[in-house]
Amino acid sequence: MANGTTRTTYLGVPTARVDGRLKVTGAAKYAAEMRPADLAYGFVVSATVAKGRIKRIDTRDALAVDGVLDVLTHEHRPKLATSDEKYKDEVAPPGSPFRPLYDDKVRFSGQPVALVVAEEFEIARYAASLVRIDYEPQEHVTDFLAQVARGARPNEEYAFEPRGDAAAAFAQAPVKIECEYRMPVEHHNPMETYAATAVWEGDDQITVFDKTQGAPNSRNYLAKVLGMPEKKVRVLSPFVGGAFGSGLRPQYQLPLAAMAARMLKRAVRVTLTRQQMFTLGYRPANVQTLALGAERDGRLVSFRHEAIGMTSQFEDFQRNLVGWSSQLYGCANSARAQKLVKLDHNTSCDMRAPGGAEGLFAIECTMDELAHTAGIDPLELRLINYSEVDQDEDKPYSSKELRACYREAAERFGWSRRSRAPRSMRDGRELVGWGMATGIWEAMQLPAAARVVLTGNGGVEVASATADIGPGTYTMMTQIAAEMLGVELYNVTAKLGDSDLPQAPVEGGSFTTSSVGSAIAAACREIQTALLGFAQKLPGSPLAGATLDDVVFAEGQIRRKDDAGRAVSLADAMRAGEAGRIVREAKAEPTKDEKHAHFTHSAVFAEVKVDEEIGLIRVTRVVSAVAAGRILNPVTARSQIVGAVVGGIGMALHEETVTDQAFGRFMNHNLAEYHVPVNADVHAIDVIFVPEKDDTINPLGVKGVGEIGIVGTAAAIANAVFHATGKRVRDLPITLDKVMG
Ligand code: MOS
Fold first, then answer.
1. Residues 430 and 486 in one domain
2. Pairing of strands 659-660, 460-463
3. Are 676 and 637 contained in the same domain?
4. Which residue puts its alpha carbon closest to atom 3 of ligand 1?
5. pLDDT in tens, 655-691
6. Residue 717, domain extent
7. Which of 84, 438, 561, 686 is the most buried (most CB within 10 A)?
């Protein structure tokens, strides 16, 4: 099929986004832009205490405002489900999910406690300020480091088997490093704020335009929470203005808008403010302690890594932080543990390579410390300890072109010209630092379905309930269908972001192309089979006796590979089969390749220039070389990596959500005080895709890209800052006060 040696027309070919025109012209409509008839507007009232009970809600003043339709509270709302199971979405962590407007309990600051619905947004917003709430506050616990000091509890979900005797090996190691790394809370801050426009259709049926990374996940959640049959609930999310993980779980605007629509029997839109965006999930703060022991030649003999993360009082969210060393570096003795502290915040959640971004920051900075102490080049240290097997699974990789990543990125960067000693490179008044790090991410695939329709005039529609939160899913779907059916890109229409379409998982984990792409390929394969059968019905068919392996689908024809002159057009085949259209729906399951471990890899090299007098750090160059199997679209894949590197710059230098402990609330909840990289912070970013052939991962040979671009980037920058200044900053972000002379 589309893999391997066959010449391709669209796969692997740089392709502009098929939805680009809609986006730049404003024709693409987002959840808050839908304008159903008779639309009302909801504004969320957020709790001002972090923990406690609502003694009394007085909505009279709000209700008295002209244009206010209703005020929903835990005392005045539609009936809601009562068991935890009904509130669990497909990516919910263990625990008891938050239930919006369920009862009088306040579990975190900013929790939605009322929804004011009015004829106009500004009326709702004003009336929301008139809702009087008496709280019975209780003492809250929101200080992460204070709780860490008091002791965290092991997270059994992430228990890693020890190997050998790490403590004994460490004691005897001639070279050793022990250190602690810290990261603060970060918030996703996509450009588009969360919104849901819920349309009450009558007949107990509801349609919601929601900002989500998974329309089916949101639909299933809503149906369960409202106690409605799934077929009476439809969630659409055709365009999403960024999410970075914040939309994997259904956010509270969804049930709130739906509850209000159901109560008022009309359309209701709920839009969150930027400040309210900071009341959703977040990347959990963490403290990581590492102890690495090595021989004098750099070979690791002991790897110990413990990570403590944070979650809410009601759910336990954590991702793999400490596991990765066993996939990257050969080491006979290893001990790893993860722990959690519970705080009176909302539950933490997935954010841009969750676990990997944080874990590899600490691992790759510590490797840099070890290289410095051992007097070994940092890249050389990685190569000395390069692992050919996943030691946790004792399996080789289905493919691992990490050596090529190191080689190509180092060469492009000019790593061989680096002078080893810190503070030894300058550019005028600025210190120059060169640092590097490794990235790794799981190459995942989940079950997904897709439907492909071919019509007699050569038009193709490809559809799946998946999302496109920015990576280029529409384009990927279009490319695969055009390639496999031999039609032009512009003859293909892609549909997604609709819970009524063939079911797909949330868009996350960099698994959309492997999962949904494989389903599309499977459906196209079935159409190919049908078409070839039709073509062979023609009297004296030039394709008589051919199998699918003997033909290609190209330029509107089915052609013999060994003789392009022997061909049948798709139109003739359709006529021969007396088919006006061919419809095929297929489901793709992950390949059951138990013999291999499946990962993507990267090598990241960064240059920083530091002005110590004013503490200015500029990331002047980043080279990221990525091995992620087959790259279907070098344009959108490159954008994924560039965007993720920018995220890595943010993680290294800018992003930090600060808690006001007196109120137990995130206080820099706006884009003026929560810093993200802007154009002036982003300089040259060079992306290399290293060729990587993977025959076992799936028929397309794709592993998926996106998250791999952030993993390792912050460490490469932190290591460059050390090389420039001689200062080892172990707590992110690396702000000016930490490097000033
Ligand atoms: Mo991603 S953090 O799986 O959206």
1. no
2. unpaired
3. yes
4. 508
5. 999 999 999 999 999 999 999 999 999 999 999 999 9
6. 396-439+598-740
7. 438
